[in-house]
Amino acid sequence: MKVVVIGAGIGGLTTALSLHAAGIECDVFESVAQIRPLGLGINLQPNAVRELIELGLGDALAEVGIATSTLAYYNKHGQKIWSEPRGIAAGYRWPQYAIHRGELQHILLDAVYARLGRDRVHLGHHLASLEQDDARVIARFVDRASGAPLDGHAADALVGADGVHSAVRRIFNPAEGLPVSSGRIMWRGALLAKPYLDGRTQVMIGYRDQRAVVYPMSEKQAPPGMQLINWLVVLGEQGLEHRREDWDLAVPKERFFPPFAHWNFPWIGLADMIEATQEIYEYPKADREPLAQWTHGRVTLLGDAAHPMRPIGSQAGTQAVVDARVLAQSLAESGGDARAGLQRYDDERRPLMNEVVLRNREYGPEIVMQMAEDRAPGGFTRIEDVIPRQELEEIARSFKVAAGFDPETLNNRCSYSVRTA
Ligand SMILES: Cc1cc2nc3c(=O)[nH]c(=O)nc-3n(C[C@H](O)[C@H](O)[C@H](O)COP(=O)(O)OP(=O)(O)OC[C@H]3O[C@@H](n4cnc5c(N)ncnc54)[C@H](O)[C@@H]3O)c2cc1C
Questions:
Q1: Going by CA atoms, what residue is nearest to atom 4 of ligand 1?
Q2: Ligand 1 — pocket residues by CB below 6 A?
Q3: Domain tally for the chain?
Q4: Per residue in 260-312, pLDDT tens?
Q5: 8 CA to middle of ligand 1, Å?
Q6: CA nearest to 227, candidates 195, 203, 274, 271
Q7: CATH of the domain at 54
Q8: What count of other Cβ atoms lies within 10 Å of the Cβ of residue 376?
Q9: Does residue 383 form part of some domain?
Q10: How confident is the model at residue 37, as a pLDDT?
Q11: Dist CA 17 CA 44 (whole Å)
Q12: In this structure, what are the phi and psi dihedrals at residue 144, rounded to the nearest 5 degrees?
C-alpha cells in the first residue's frame, strides 16, 4: 500500500513515521520550501509521549523537552486554586513534556529523513486539488510562491494533515468558510529566565477574560541556571479585528499589556517576563465545527485539519500524534483495503475528537479558574471554602477521561504499534 501525506507538521511527520513502522510506504508533501523552527511551546501529554517513545524517539524528547511535574491553577491575585502532579508523578507510565514546537518538528523530520529517506519529503509542494477513483487517489500540487503546477502523485490513500486552513478539508467541505472565532485573542512569547517554582510546573493564572499560561519548555540552549520559558495570555473580547490564524504574526505588547502590568506575584514575575520578551505573537483563539465525516473514500483528515480546537488542556499536538498512530494501525490491519482502513480510523477517532472540540469551548479543566473568580473575586483564605476539593478533583478527572488520557485507561490499553513480520 502507498500513502501520500499532505503537510509536514507534527501530525503529518508522525503519520509518516507510524506508517513506516507499520511497513507502509509513504511520501510527505509540504507547502513551505524550507522547514524553519517556527512556533513556541507545545505540550505533549503522556498519551502522545507513549506513542513517540514507541516510535523510538524517547531519548530525543528527553534531551530537548522539559518533563512537566505539576499543573497548577491560580486566581488573579496569585493564590493557588488547584494543583496536580503530571506525567510519571501522576501515575502514568510515560512523562508529559513541554517542548519547543520547532524542535519537536525537527526531531520528527530528522527521524523521517533517517528512516524513510530524504527523497520521501517533498518540500515546496502545495496541495491544490485531488481526484480519486476505484483504483487510486491522485494529489495535484502547485509551487505556492509562483502558482506553477508541479507533478502529481498517485497513491492508495491520502491523509490531509495540512493544518487549520486545510485544503483537503475544504475540498470535501467547500461551504465551511473561515474558522469559528471565539472572540478572544492569545498573545504568546518566550524568553530566557530563571526558573520559577520547581522549574517544571505549568501554571494557569486568572479567569476566563484575563488569563495567562506559563511553562518552561527547554533548557538545552539556555545558560546555566536559566530556562526558555513560554508564556501566553488571553483577554476577553477586545473589539480587535479578527486576523487570519497565522502563527507568525508579530505584534507590539501594547496590544494587550496594561491589564497584566501588575501581575508580578511572589512566586512568578509574569509582568516582568512579558516586558523582557523580545518578540510577541498574536493568534486568534478559534476552532471549527465538528465534521460528520473525515474519511471520503481514499482520503481522510488528521490533526488540526480534522479537529482544529481551542487551545484548552494542551490537546492539539497530542491528539495529532495519537491520530497518526491509530491511522497507521487501521491501515496496516485493513487487509490491503485502504478505504476500509481509513473508515475504521474515522470511526475510532472522530467521535472522541468531536467531543474534545466541543468540550474545549466550555473551558475544560480551566473552568476552576472561572469558578474561583465568580465565587471569590476578591480572593480567599482557604480554597476549600470556595470550591470543595471533591469538585476540583472531579473536574480534573473527567477532562482526562473525555480526552482519553486518564492514567488507568492509558496505562492499560494495548499499544497501537503494529507487528511487522
Ligand atoms: C508555523 C506553525 C507554528 C505553530 N506554533 C505553535 C505553537 O507555538 N504552539 C502550539 O500549541 N501550536 C502551534 N502550532 C500548531 C500545532 O502545531 C498544531 O495545533 C498541532 O501540532 C497539530 O499539528 P498538525 O500537524 O495537525 O498541524 P500543523 O502543525 O499546523 O501542520 C500543518 C502543516 O501543513 C502544511 N500545509 C498547509 N497547507 C498545505 C497544503 N495545501 N499543502 C501542503 N502542505 C500544507 C503547513 O505548512 C504545516 O507544515 C503551530 C503550527 C504551525 C504551522
A1: 39
A2: 6-12, 29-32, 38-42, 101, 126-127, 161-163, 167, 247, 303-305, 311, 316-317, 320
A3: 1
A4: 999 999 999 999 999 999 999 988 878 899 999 999 999 999 999 999 998 77
A5: 8
A6: 195
A7: 3.50.50.60
A8: 18
A9: no
A10: 73
A11: 17
A12: -65, -35
